[in-house]
Amino acid sequence: MYAEHEQEAPARSEAAPTAFRAAEKLYQLRREQIFRQRKGKRVSKGVTVRATDLTSVLDLGLAGEERPLPLGVARLPAQLGVPSCMPPSAAAYAFDAHPGLLLVRGALPPGLQRQLVMEAFTRFCEPPNHTTLTRTHPAGLPGIWAATQQGLRLQPAGQAACEAASGATGTDVSTPDGAPSDGSASSGRTTSIWGAGGGGPTADSLLRKLRWATLGPPYDWTQRRYLREAVHDPLPPQLRSLATELAGLAASLLGAAAAAGSGGGGVADGAASCRNGAAEGSLGGASQAFCPDAALVNFYYEGDTLNGHVDDAENSLGQPLVSLSLGCDAVFLIGGHTRDVPPTPLLLRSGDAVVLAGDARRCYHGVPRVLTDRPLPAALRADGREGGSSSSDAGNAAAFAPFARHLQHCRINISVRDTR
Ligand SMILES: O=C(O)CCC(=O)C(=O)O
Asked: Which GO terms describe its biological process (predicted)?
């Protein structure tokens, strides 16, 4: 991971921002006041969002979508092996200007997207995982999603009891086993800190403060290290295998593209994998197989940004970073080894995966804009259904509906790493 508050170099004046900063400013959400004249006076009419020109943002297509390829971007041949777990419409891209960067449009099938969204709110942000709120609520806020759905508030007495319990045992107060993954009816300890009345903060206001959660060993932004000694659950196996598949795909596709002289250079040939725990080959010069053990889950709402940074806290930067997008579209900037290199803006949509491997692993990247004003894909909408119209489809759609409403103004990113 990276420093929590990335700063521009102090010597730089605002008059001469870096190329990366200039691009961030171009895409950031800006609100401006609008005025009208009334009785000879200038009166505020309210605030509006300044229109952003997104024409330079590369919006690459799925398989079957015929779009001209921008110069320096190569679509990698499907026969090189898109894993069977990915939809046939997935399409992979390499970039001459960014060796080691792989974008897989539509990598995650809709059902998997919905599942990861539900887990992000009901499991990933639950103790023992650390979140933005761990500093203020050291025992975590178990059941927070269910509490938002029921309009509950944090109860001071319940919170104190929860903290005491945590202090006494030093262990987790996570959602009890068997709690439904939609968080609809958490029971036992998890509901005790929430109640209908009182003056405590609403669960909804707390959820909006949740900017990140860590999976696997928690990351400490002050010490800039992974806290292996802290109580934690292992990275969910599904994320581990998904990231491993994508890293393997990046190794074979980018390796082949580099050999053919188009994009992808900077990644060592051969698939990297710890499928079934077996080490095979290497990626990006790493001497060991890629075995992801941690992830950062970022939650973005309107106006939220992630400043340009390099993820450099992992022990081996030779291992790739695999980043999954869910929910609202976003503008992703990928630059070079310094902020002076002009970045390429890419549009990321729900279900897309980005692999930063080889040279790209050491490059500045960030998210200056989340586009909360666009419709979500049908599979993520409250009324969206995939496949048939059986009662279980209808049940799944009903269970997903509250998440779909929330996603209309939220983006989730899960970046999976090998920290060892
Ligand atoms: O949200 C994204 O797409 C990027 C996330 C990222 O850069 C990170 O977690 O390091």
From this structure: oxidative RNA demethylation
How many whole angstroms from 420 Cα to the centroid of ligand 1? 19
pLDDT category at 12 given cuts 50, 70, 90 is: low
Find the 367 Cα to ligand 1 centroid distance in Å.
Answer: 7
Q: Is the CB of 214 under 6 A from ligand 1?
A: no
List domains and CATH numbers for the chain: 1-125+210-420 (2.60.120.590), 133-205 (no CATH)
Per-residue confidence (pLDDT) for residue 317, from 0 to 100 = 86
The reported pLDDT for the residue numbered 374 is 93
Ligand 1 pocket residue status of 323, Cβ below 6 Å: yes
Predicted local distance difference test score (pLDDT) of residue 161:
52
Do 95 and 359 touch, CB atoms closer than 8 A? no
State yes or no: 309 annotated in a binding site. Answer: yes
**215: Cβ–Cβ under 8 A, 6 or more apart, which residues?**
124, 129, 233, 235, 236, 239, 294, 295, 296, 297
Residue 203, classed as helix, strand or coil, is helix
C-alpha 155/C-alpha 287 separation (Å) is 51
Which range (3-7, 285-289, 299-303, 406-410) has the least confidence?
A: 3-7
Judge contact between 379 and 116, C-beta under 8 A.
no
- 3-state class of 74 per DSSP? strand
Query: Is residue 53's pLDDT more than 80?
Result: yes
Residue 303: is its pLDDT beyond 90? yes
Percent of the chain with pLDDT over 90: 59
pTM for the full predicted model:
0.85
* Rounded (10°) CA dihedral 210, 306, 415, 310: -140
Measured in Å, residue 154 CA sits from the centre of ligand 1 at 30
Q: For residue 280, is pLDDT > 70?
A: no
| Listed residue (322, 150, 129, 41) closest to 141, CA to CA | 129
